[in-house]
Automatic annotation (TrEMBL):
Compartments reported by the entry: Cell membrane
Main subcellular localisation: membrane
KW Cell membrane (keyword) present: yes
Record protein name field: ABC transporter permease
Provenance organism: Candidatus Dactylopiibacterium carminicum
TM spans (from-to): 283-305, 326-358, 378-400
InterPro entries: ABC-4/HrtB_transporter, ABC3_permease_C
Length: 410
């Protein structure tokens, strides 16, 4: 006998329940580890990508986390306003490429309407519209990639961020001040895979005007964006600052940390979040490792039990001419193939579970989280397979120690 696979396959068919249980245990242990690692990485990458558009964020003194959640992730909530003088001063500060006010307060069918300037809308020329153009005057809007509005559509804002209004509601509120202004969609931005894909960007002057605030310009002026008139600037929730260089960014951050304002890199806040997530991940990884150890023990017990139950079968094979080496290879292959198949199945299940979970979380989080398999997951699978190959040596070694006569007695 030279080909061990017919015997291996025959044993698999004869012991379907043991085979299925072993594979399921291995797959579950691997899937748990893969899911923990892949989800944590996806969350990190998604967070980092969402913050890419914000080199330096300036807000009124308060909670940095609240400022980042509101400005970067559009988890809109009431935050203190920066004075208009701060915006005007930052706009003239050396080392600033642009200082973009970010003003909130209205929505269209749940899509937040954000007032800003064209320099921020196209990220200083790095984000040209895929359709149409940027807004050039008041009453125009540029929509994110996932906003279901065609170019040329006219919309009317509704007050607040979470409400949606149908046509009947809009007719009932025809005299509301928010319906005194409508926006015409003139462009669409490319996908950014973050919360801003669902935003509608308009001139900040319109957001100020609709809330009966000064326009930031002298009476009668029609242009939008800077330069501003400091005496006509209302407060703003946040300012997205684009520094001219990395050195300028650090200098501006220190310069703008005053009693009037706080300046931060969104990555600073994300690092705090990562440290918390890191602790959670360590706990989850420990639980996954514990599960894998228990699985290894369960596999070992099951295989030893199965080996003892089939001791007579192996003795018969040796009696009809099979060598001890052949029996060892058969037993080793049976165990190794089961562990390898279970680990591969677990890899697929873990990735699939992570992908489905991220699809569910992403709309709630406001940004996409790319799920991928990395080196860490592959090392996890390789380690479990290697453990399986070593485990497979034990029943094979026990088979070599048993004589044919002893096996036939069972």
């Amino acid at each position: 006998m030279f080909n061990p696979f017919p015997v291996v396959l025959a044993d698999y068919r004869r012991n379907r329940l043991l085979v299925a249980t072993t594979m399921a245990l291995v797959a579950l242990a691997v899937a748990m580890g893969i899911a923990v690692i892949a989800q944590e990485r996806a969350l990190r990458q998604g967070n980092a990508r969402a913050a890419d558009d914000f080199d330096l964020l300036v807000g009124a003194p308060g909670s940095p986390t609240q400022l980042v959640l509101t400005s970067v992730y559009l988890k809109l909530q009431s935050i203190p306003l920066l004075s208009g003088e701060v915006l005007e001063r930052i706009s003239r500060t050396r080392g600033v490429r642009y200082a973009a006010p970010i003003a909130f307060g209205d929505n269209w069918q749940g899509h937040p309407i954000v007032g800003t300037i064209t320099a921020f809308a196209n990220r200083d020329g790095h984000l040209p519209p895929t359709e149409g153009r940027l807004f050039t005057q008041r009453g125009e809007a540029v929509v994110g990639a996932s906003v279901p509005l065609a170019l040329g559509t006219r919309i009317q804002p509704a007050h607040g961020q979470q409400q949606t209004h149908d046509e009947e509601d809009e007719q009932d509120e025809a005299h509301d001040h928010h319906h005194a202004l409508s926006y015409t969609v003139v462009g669409r931005l490319p996908p950014r895979h973050n919360a801003w894909d669902s935003a509608i960007l308009v001139p900040v002057e319109d957001v100020w005007a609709i809330h009966e605030l000064p326009s930031g310009h002298a009476e009668g002026e029609k242009h939008i964006g800077p330069p501003w008139d400091a005496t006509q600037l209302p407060g703003v929730p946040a300012i997205a600052v684009k520094p001219e260089s990395v050195a300028a960014a650090y200098g501006l951050r220190g310069q703008l940390r005053t009693h009037e304002s706080m300046a931060l890199f969104p990555a600073e806040v994300l690092n705090e979040l990562y440290s918390t997530l890191g602790n959670v991940r360590d706990l989850m990884s420990l639980l996954a490792l514990t599960a894998q150890v228990l699985v290894v023990i369960a596999i070992l017990m099951a295989l030893l039990t199965g080996f003892l139950a089939r001791a007579r079968q192996f003795a018969v094979l040796r009696a009809i001419g099979a060598s001890a080496r052949y029996i060892f290879i058969v037993i080793w292959l049976e165990v190794s193939l089961l562990v390898a198949a279970g680990a591969t199945l677990g890899l697929v299940l873990g990735y699939g579970a992570s992908w489905l979970l991220m699809q569910w979380i992403a709309p709630k989080a406001g940004f996409t989280m790319p799920v991928s398999l990395g080196e860490e997951e592959l090392r996890l699978v390789a380690a479990l397979v290697a453990a399986g190959l070593l485990i497979a040596l034990l029943p094979g070694w026990l088979s070599l120690r048993r004589s044919i006569a002893e096996g036939l007695k069972n």
